[in-house]
Amino acid sequence: MVPHDGTSRSPRPSRRRLLATSGAGIAAVLAGCGGLRAQTLSRPETEAEETETHLVYRDDGDRLATVSLLERFRDEPRTPYGIRLHVWHREGTRFEEVRYELRPIGVGRPPEFSLTRPGGSSWEPIRFSAGEDPETTVLAVSDLGFRSRGSVTFDLLVEPRDEDPFDLRLDVDATLESERTLGPTYALEGSLVHTLPGTDDLD
Fold first, then answer.
1. What's the order of all strands across the beta sheet hosting 152-159?
2. Which of 2, 18, 90, 134 is the most buried (most CB within 10 A)?
3. How far apart are the first and last CA of the chain?
4. What tens digit of pLDDT does each residue of 110-159 get?
5. Where are the domains of the chain?
6. pLDDT > 90? residue 201
7. Is the per-residue pLDDT at 77 higher than 80?
8. What's the burial of 153, exposed, middle or buried (CB within 10 Å: 0-12/13-18/19+)?
9. Quick check: 64 and 58 in contact, CB under 8 A?
10. CATH number of 35-202, picked from 2.60.40, 3.30.70, 1.10.8, 1.10.3470
């Protein structure tokens, strides 16, 4: 019989426990990386022209994405007239979701907005409804699917109710993701104002 030396030995950790501990450590590291990869861009540049206004988002000085409001009625000035909401983004990124709020400023009777049915194959559900107040219209898509890799466009019709021109404020919230492994995720925020005609400007 081997004599007992009076010392106790700690049991060896099992391989299963080692793997579980290592996995938890890796998950914690990845979670930390995810937090570091998320960036909020809330101060875009505004580029205004006569018939269009753009929000330009940059990452390290390079253009990352552009959100645009474009007039679509100059050739046929009549009511209802068309406007387009357009998003361009850099190659190697995906637009996962986008939300617009259209808010007329300083109007006696707010205009009516109608969404033209987007072309192409079927879309995921599109929200088009009144916002928290009756003068605000919300257009939102929470899953752009395969369209996330290309430009995203929505066409709307505007039916003004006042004679005078009015300012339309467009608020934007969108999520843009890099296609690279562990690449950054961008939360895009911003707003633009574009002047649209009233009924007298279209007679």
1. 45-48, 52-59, 62-71, 81-89, 152-159, 112-115
2. 90
3. 111
4. 999 999 987 766 777 889 999 988 899 999 988 877 677 788 889 999 99
5. 35-202
6. no
7. no
8. middle
9. yes
10. 2.60.40
